[in-house]
Specification:
The complex is a heterodimer of chains A (111) and B (295).
Chain A (H helix, E strand, L loop, with lengths): L5 H4 L3 H9 L5 E2 H11 L8 H13 L3 E7 L5 E7 L1 H27 L1
Antiparallel strand pairs in A: 1-3, 2-3
Chain B lengths: L2 H12 L1 H25 L4 H9 L4 H12 L2 H19 L1 H30 L13 E2 L14 H10 L60 H7 L10 E3 L4 E3 L11 H16 L4 H14 L3
Antiparallel strand pairs in B: 1-3, 2-3
The chains are: A alpha+beta (111), B mainly alpha (295).
Chain lengths: 111, 295
């Protein structure tokens, strides 16, 4: 199956995917990228050059916050979790995405 | 700026070593996890390294993370200052010579620019001074005596003329208190203002009040320095057409008139402008009010 990195997909989509992935549990960066890759059946693969700047940007915006914990490997890892404002932002971006994808889908079906 | 953003930036600036160590740890953890995963999938160490290379170089990712902090300018500045201080301490004589040379060079450039600015680059403070006019009705074509416009005439000019972008009313021998640019809707005439103009940023130098016809507008920086910024209006002078209507510039700088005088005009001249008092009566009212009011 051809692999596609996020920046080639749609600008701004990465933030939405990260926020959605963190909706349930706190995760470190690698776990986030693995989760997205697994759920997308390997279609979406995020390199660290995209992932970590995005995580730091979201942290600066206050949509996620970080905490250092010991991982399952026994090594310190930086875990990110969604904040209250991050949940609100996720709702906004998810709504926008829904609207846009529905519109594109309709064009593809009926145009 | 959000508080979280400010806190993270401040931490990155004041505790850069901690933040850098955390960034290294975070990216290192990612590499370790990815390596373990690839080895678990059966790749050799060399294949795992090649596979990891597809995800881009770690230093580049670290740089992009640093950019997200938004303090790269301050970090660079702090590094430059630190480097400059170290250099100054190591070779003070050389450093002071360089500083003195740069200071001398800046001084020479400043003097040269000041000279050229004063004599070559200075431009009029008015954007289009030749487009500013005061309208004056003369007693006869060859006369220098002015006949004032009535309020209704002024309103007719304002309503009917398509020559000027805007018009405001005033009386040349009385103080003007005009604000703004004379834009439609601004209450300028109600202040017994003088002259007609389209901007409130110009003035005539009263030292040259008795100049001959067709003189230009004084709106240079020199005039601005003379009157300060609190100036009201000015115009140009020209003779238009065969009926020899004259357009004369006037200027009234607020500082030329006392508050007492302005107050008296404000009380007496609206009656003339309204048409309820004649010019003579309004003048008489003004003189009486000035004589009665305390200095």
């Amino acid at each position: 199956m051809p692999r596609q990195t996020i920046p080639d997909l749609l600008p701004g989509t990465l933030d939405l995917l990260i926020l959605r992935t963190l909706q349930t549990d706190p995760m470190h960066g690698w776990a986030i990228s693995e989760r997205i890759q697994q759920i997308s059946h390997d279609v979406l693969q995020i390199n660290q050059g995209s992932l970590y700047p995005a995580l730091h940007r979201l942290e600066h915006q206050g949509w996620i916050e970080a905490e250092w914990r010991v991982s399952a490997l026994g090594r310190r890892a930086k875990y990110y979790r969604l904040t209250a404002s991050g949940r609100r932002q996720l709702a906004v971006e998810a709504g926008e995405w829904e609207r846009m994808s529905t519109a594109i889908d309709r064009v593809m079906r009926f145009a | 700026m959000r508080f979280t953003d400010f806190r993270l930036r401040a931490r990155a600036f004041f505790r850069p070593r901690n933040v850098e160590r955390e960034l290294d740890d975070e990216l290192g953890f990612h590499i370790e996890c990815e390596t373990r995963k690839l080895l678990a999938e059966g790749l050799s160490a060399a294949e795992a390294r090649r596979a990891l290379a597809r995800f881009g170089p770690v230093p580049l990712a670290a740089d992009q993370c640093r950019d997200e902090r938004g303090i790269s300018f301050f970090e660079t500045l702090a590094r430059d200052v630190s480097f400059a201080l170290r250099t100054l301490r190591r070779a003070p004589l050389v450093a002071l010579t360089v500083i003195a040379t740069i200071a001398l060079g800046l001084g020479v450039v400043t003097v040269a620019f000041t000279f050229f600015n004063a004599f070559f680059f200075q431009v009029d403070a008015v954007r289009n001074p030749d487009e500013l006019f005061a309208v004056e009705r003369l007693e006869r074509p060859d006369s220098r005596s002015e006949v004032p416009f009535s309020r209704s005439e002024y309103e007719a000019i304002r309503r009917d003329t398509d020559v000027f972008t805007d018009v405001a009313a005033a009386r040349p021998s009385f103080p003007t208190r005009v604000r703004g640019t004379g834009a439609p809707g601004e209450d300028i005439a109600g202040r017994a203002a003088v002259a007609m103009f389209v901007s409130g940023n110009f003035f005539e130098d009263r030292r040259h009040a008795r100049r001959p016809a067709n003189h230009g507008v004084h709106a240079s920086r020199d005039d601005s320095r003379h009157y300060g910024s609190s100036v009201d209006c000015v115009g140009g002078r020209l003779v238009a057409g065969s009926d020899a209507k004259s357009y004369t510039p006037y200027l009234y700088a607020n500082k030329l008139f006392s508050d007492r005088f302005r107050d008296a005009v404000g009380r007496t001249w609206p009656a003339y402008l309204d048409g309820t008092r004649t010019l003579t009566d309004a003048d008489r009212d003004l003189v009486r009010m000035l004589s009665e009011s305390p200095r």
